[in-house]
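Archive entry. Fields below.
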Amino acid sequence: MTGLRYVYAICRPFGAPLQAELTGVGGAPAKLLHHHGLVAVVSDVPQRDFAEEPLRAHLEDLDWLAATARGHQQVIDALTAVTTPLPLRLATVFRDDSGVRVMIEAREEDFRRTLDRLEGRVEWGVKVYVEAETPETAGTATAGTAESGPPAKPASGRDYLVQRRRRAKAHEDSWLRAERFAGRLHSLLSAHADAARLHPPQNAALSRAAGQNVLNAAYLVPRKESEEFVEIVDRTKGEEPGMRVELTGPWAAYSFVDLEFAQSEEEGS
Amino acid sequence: MTVVERREVALVDLLDRLLAGGVVITGDITLRIADVDLVRIDLNALISSVNKNVPAPWGDLV
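PREDICTED_STRUCTURE:
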């Protein structure tokens, strides 16, 4: 069986050893490949799963994708504890170690520049959800629907229109408040971060989270200032009725690595 | 880091980062997530939720 090399991240050499039993995608042990003063963190993956055709098929399988993403993250997480890794996109695969070395040589400058920029920084994720029902809108939002106990049947067409307008208004107000709150929070957090990036809001069907996601942001924050950043986020929780603030992290700086690289990709190097 | 108790990371948060973040390098296996149209079809909701370029997060609602 021929193995391929899955690359998780590029780092500068770090003193601390990796956990001896650290495994990644497919349960294979993570290894360090030193080259030109940089370290690629790699593991062997089988050709039968990661050659182009099987990989294409696997990527359509959400369970496989989930397991692979978890394996990837496990390695990145362990690296984040000991250094500042430059995480690569999921499923970056080379034929062998020499392929990885060639890639490092081709991108050396980009890697160093990005590693310098990210040094000592982590990513925090902040999401804002509008709860499905807020105390103020609950009454009007459900009035007239079949589920709301005794159906407040409109007495006339005019009543119906009034009710409908009121519901629409409550809905609008709720979004307006959400927009303002999310905007305010994003400005506040951006002011306490070195960089910020907005991810598209998450689909509730996938996240299975309650409420509607209106802000899905990532912030690049120095490790040393992270505690303060977390406190700021915590203080905003419960500040605005009907809004839920969620914090995730610390992550490796996944959302902040592409600046230097977008250009090089276009140049086709 | 002990500032936050680590919980199981939600898959959707992970995929936001792994499919839309991270350094994009053309490996020897040149298949990249962004190139896989089939994925977009079968995992349509997933991919559109992580790859769509939405300027304001609440732009297409209401």
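CURATOR_NOTE: The mean pLDDT of chain A is 86.
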